[in-house]
Design a protein that fits this description.
binds beta-D-glucopyranose, single chain
Length: about 600
């Protein structure tokens, strides 16, 4: 565990006023985060949305025009679209909870009072691995169950449900009096976290325009990194409450568990009063007027503006296409359960959907098998094993990991939508491989003589940091962006649920195998991760399609989903219908009557 052997474990009688300082620091940082996001909004809210183009009608606007009409990407784009920036930052509180929860347990486990109360869990207890991993198992379940919730009750309310689960989990952990309470709390909290990790990027991806989708989703990775870093330093501070020796107060560990309820409550309230519904979900459930209103608010343009009109048409076309496909292919599927079943089945049986599902899941798997959590969870142990002797040195080296992880996520906000997913992933992968290779080789050479070769130890540490840097701007972010954008609306939530659950189960496996590998194959651990980062590089280079700037509704073209005459006919009919609607021509004639049937059926499902 990251805090194993850290100064925290040296018992001392020093008493610090940190029981006041730590909550204050935590609240200040949280407040800064919220203030920063609101400051952006206040500053930008008067700016005219200058993405307006002077198209005279919706029909004149091709999708190519529409893409360029959204304006610049990256930082400039986000600053101009202050609404998207604000909402994405706010929803990213979910990412903050994610990172915080990942980071907080490691410090708690080695606190003296915690060890005394939970001897089988704290210190070197036999249940220690499980108390960490049970959260990831809960998250695995949470990511899967969030799909039906996000489809049925909306993305936004599914995040609210997640916050409630997270709150229950946090209260149980903060108030734990025995192992079972702790384990149940970790599991329930994990469910909430899994839901959040699926619901937040899904929601952000659906509110963002194509030019900002990558940058907006990247904000959640930024928040994850902030959460990890803050929890690390917070644990470090609260351990002094009552002194780090025998007299340590129970507040030392209860407080870090308890404090996370603050962002969770903020997010819960935000789900009802701040975050709007996803316009794509609204269209999916046929609340199209509301979808139009939300879209116009998000784009800061009037409802009748050609950009808004063209975008809503694109979304409607996508949604109707999905619904019509289901209706024509599965005429007997009437209830929402039957339809959901067919959608899950389609994901595995339709070639182009199965391909996308594989890509999303494999990317999640590879993100974890780059070894990032091996470092996040076991950094102090690693730093010690490469010769950085002294607890404070290895602890400091670990602290640097947290800081680099945050700092390196910032450039990603600017580059993923400008340079594209592929190039960023390839850069990241090749430098991560290089780092693993060098660490492994140094380790192999100096395994028994670190003490005499201090420089080698520091070089290895520098490459651990270099690895984290390259992870943070590349696969750290893109693994979250990619699944939000490649699936059609009809199966998006289901597919994301499966992909994110793969992330959690891989995270779980890494947590379990890393200490075993470090003990047995030692430097081989880094060659092991080197192999996976090389796989990531080659796979991206040869197989991964670029999705930068492609509207969600046009992703089919990348994956062969719109091929075939039947599909083209279906899309043609929908486009004609939408053109009629936009001209207010009555479309419910005999020849185009599928539309009203579809309407009724779609409404019945929800
Ligand atoms: C990963 C986490 C990891 C974090 C590090 C996320 O993208 O999913 O497992 O701990 O990045 O910043």
């Amino acid at each position: 565990m990251p805090f194993a052997n850290c100064p925290a474990t040296k018992r001392s009688r020093i008493r610090h006023p940190l029981y006041i300082f730590c909550p204050l620091l935590f609240c200040t940082l949280l407040l800064c985060y919220i203030l920063l996001s609101s400051a952006f909004v206040t500053k930008m809210s008067n700016e005219k949305a200058d993405q307006m183009i002077r198209s005279s009608s919706v029909e004149e606007m091709s999708s190519v025009d529409l893409d360029s009409a959204f304006g610049p990407s990256g930082f400039r784009g986000l600053v101009r679209s202050s609404n998207i920036l604000f909402y994405s930052l706010f929803a990213s509180l979910g990412g903050f909870l994610f990172g915080y929860d990942q980071g907080v347990i490691s410090g708690v486990l080695v606190m003296r009072d915690f060890e005394k109360r939970f001897p089988r869990v704290g210190g070197n207890g036999d249940l220690q691995g499980w108390v960490v991993s049970i959260m990831q198992l809960g998250a695995f379940v949470g990511a899967l169950i969030n799909s039906p919730l996000a489809d049925r009750f909306s993305r936004r309310y599914s995040i609210a449900v997640a916050c409630v689960a997270f709150l229950i989990g946090s209260v149980l952990q903060a108030g734990a009096i025995d192992n079972s309470m702790l384990f149940i709390g970790r599991f329930i909290g994990g469910i909430g976290l899994g839901q959040i990790s699926m619901g937040v990027p899904l929601w952000i991806g659906e509110i963002a325009p194509p030019n900002l989708r990558g940058s907006a989703v990247t904000l959640q990775q930024f928040a994850i990194a902030c959460g990890i870093m803050i929890s690390f330093w917070l644990d470090y501070g609260t351990q002094y409450i009552g002194g780090i020796g025998e007299g340590q107060s129970q507040l030392a560990w209860r407080l870090p568990f308890a404090l996370r309820v603050i962002p969770a409550i903020a997010l819960l309230i935000g789900c009802f009063f701040i975050l709007p519904f996803s316009p794509r979900w609204l269209v999916k459930v046929r609340r199209e007027h509301e979808a139009l209103a939300v879209l116009s608010r998000l784009r800061k343009l009037p409802e009748n503006h050609p950009i808004v009109q063209a975008e809503i048409m694109q979304i409607k076309a996508g949604a109707r296409f999905d619904a019509l496909t289901i209706k024509e292919k599965f005429p007997n599927a009437k209830t929402s359960a039957q339809i959901a079943y067919q959608q899950y089945k389609e994901l595995f049986t339709q070639k182009h959907l199965a391909k996308r599902l594989f890509v999303a899941c494999f990317l999640q798997f590879l993100q974890q098998f780059t070894g990032v959590n091996a470092i996040i969870y076991y950094a102090p142990k690693m730093f010690k094993s490469i010769g950085l002797s002294g607890n404070s040195v290895s602890l400091l080296a670990t602290g640097v990991v947290g800081i680099i992880n945050v700092v390196a996520t910032v450039p990603a906000i600017g580059i993923v939508d400008n340079y594209g997913r592929r190039v960023v992933l390839m850069f990241g992968a090749i430098f991560m491989s290089l780092s693993h290779f060098i660490i492994a080789t140094l380790y192999a050479i100096y395994e028994h003589s670190w003490a005499e070769h201090l420089f080698a130890g520091w070089a290895a540490a520098a490459f651990v940091w270099f690895f984290v840097f390259n992870f943070a701007y590349s696969v750290g972010c893109i693994a979250w962006i990619y699944p939000t954008e490649i699936f059609p609306l009809g199966v998006r939530a289901q597919a994301m649920g499966i992909a994110i659950s793969v992330n959690w189960i891989s995270n779980f496996v890494i947590g379990l195998i890393t200490p075993i590998m470090l003990n047995h194959i030692k430097f081989g651990t880094f060659y092991f991760f080197f192999a996976f980062t090389m796989v990531l590089f080659c796979w991206v280079m040869f197989f991964l399609p670029e999705t930068k700037g492609v509207p969600m509704e046009e992703m089919d073209k990348l994956w062969g989903g719109s091929e075939g005459k039947e599909t083209a006919d279906r899309m043609g009919r929908i486009q004609n219908e939408l053109k009629c609607e936009s001209r207010n021509v009555p479309i419910y004639s005999k020849t185009s009557s599928y539309s009203d049937d579809l309407d009724i059926e779609m409404q019945e499902q929800y």
